[in-house]
Amino acid sequence: MRFLKCASICLGLSALIASAYVVKKGDTLWDLSAEFLNDPFAWPDLWENNRHIEDPHWIYPGDSIYLGDGIDEGYRLPKTRPCEAAVADSNLPKGITSVGCDERDARNGDFEKMLGNLRDKDKKHKKKKEADTYLYKKRPAPKIFNGYYQILAPEIYTLDSIKKDSRFFSIRSGEKKEPIIHIPESEVVVGIGRKTNPSLKKGDLVEILDARAIEVPAHKGKSYDNFALVRLSGYAKITAIGDTLSRGKIVQSFREIKLDHAKARLKQPLNVLNVTGYTAVPEAKVEEMAMIRYTMDPMLIIGAYAYIMVDKGTKQEYNTGDAIAIWEEDRSDASIPPRLLGRGIIARATDNESTVLVREVYSNSRRIEIGHKVSITHQAKLAQ
């Protein structure tokens, strides 16, 4: 009798060990899948069969995990929860007979939606589609488009075009002792007067522009294209007019004003957009995504409210006001979806280039860099 009782206990323990596992410190679903199912990529199936685990990234010592039948014979985890076949586990709360069989399961399914087709049992390599697409349903539209995004957005010119553009003229300090950085109330002298512009009058505003030559990586090869990067630094007001020169006073600054590499022009009319809302773009094709060609502060880490330049513009339907996503491709395996790094807004678009304002960065350890992909997530609806 005692022998039969002992045998029954041993058989029960064997069955329990074969189907359930108690989590130890340091365990992950990936490691458990590799050890018991001989396939670490089967962790989504292991998670599916343990509905009491809400977040697959967090399992805790003492948790019970159903491992499936026949774990010693290879990967055979059932597609659905085998509640009837599972052995009762004494580690579970009262009222739950076996792992993953709680009918009151409250998992919200957010992680499941993110998994995509990771649970596909067909492990054969499939021919890659012509265009991988990625959905944006969970990406909220921007709350606002501020007119200052446009005003402060850098402009890109070819070197020849900026040299031939008569709107630009010289600017220098008008102070007796020239400061390194000019601030409001500082005096400046601009290269425009009655003879060059008869319509010039006192009180006119002059844009003070930071103008620098930059090298932008070419689309193909290791060469570079030369451009001029122009950024608004502040405004000056004309206080006195001469024949070829005029005097002005700085009235507003947006950043450090260094006149040793500055240009000026009369304040340009700008059609500031009035964005009333956004229309979601349901998907994006990888080969149609834009690419980051230049970062406006190449020596700094790109963070929120930094500007970048991408290689698509209005001709490719990248328009001012549109919301974008920034992606990092996994070059080790082209079939893995790109990783989302951040979001932003197109602040200014030309025919074939756009200036993007980065508004959100999602990772402190992964930097936004030249070569990363950019796609439209929401198209701006403009007031008529």
Structure description:
The chain is of the alpha+beta class and 384 residues long. It contains 6 helices and 18 strands. The chain has helices at 2-19, 29-36, 43-48, 110-114, 147-151, 159-164; strands at 20-22, 64-66, 133-135, 155-158, 171-173, 187-190, 205-217, 224-241, 246-253, 262-266, 275-280, 283-285, 290-295, 307-310, 323-328, 339-349, 354-361, 373-382. Strand 8 and strand 9 form a beta hairpin. It is elongated and about 95 Å long. The relative contact order is 0.12. Residues 1-17, 84-89 and 121-125 have low confidence and may be disordered.
SSE topology:
Elements: H1 2-19, E1 20-22, H2 29-36, H3 43-48, E2 64-66, H4 110-114, E3 133-135, H5 147-151, E4 155-158, H6 159-164, E5 171-173, E6 187-190, E7 205-217, E8 224-241, E9 246-253, E10 262-266, E11 275-280, E12 283-285, E13 290-295, E14 307-310, E15 323-328, E16 339-349, E17 354-361, E18 373-382
Antiparallel strand pairs: 1-2, 3-12, 4-8, 5-6, 6-9, 7-8, 7-10, 8-9, 11-18, 13-14, 13-18, 14-17, 15-16, 15-18, 16-17
Alpha-carbon Rg, integer: 31 Å
Poorly predicted regions: 1-17, 84-89, 121-125
Q: Percent of residues in helical segments?
A: 10-25%
Global mean pLDDT: 78
Termini separation comes to 90 Å
* Major sheet attributes: 7 strands, antiparallel
Compute the number of helices.
Answer: 6
Report the strand count: 18
Q: Spell out the helices and strands N to C.
A: HEHHEHEHEHEEEEEEEEEEEEEE
Strand portion:
25-35%
The protein's oligomeric status is single chain
What is the overall shape? elongated
Return the structural class: alpha+beta
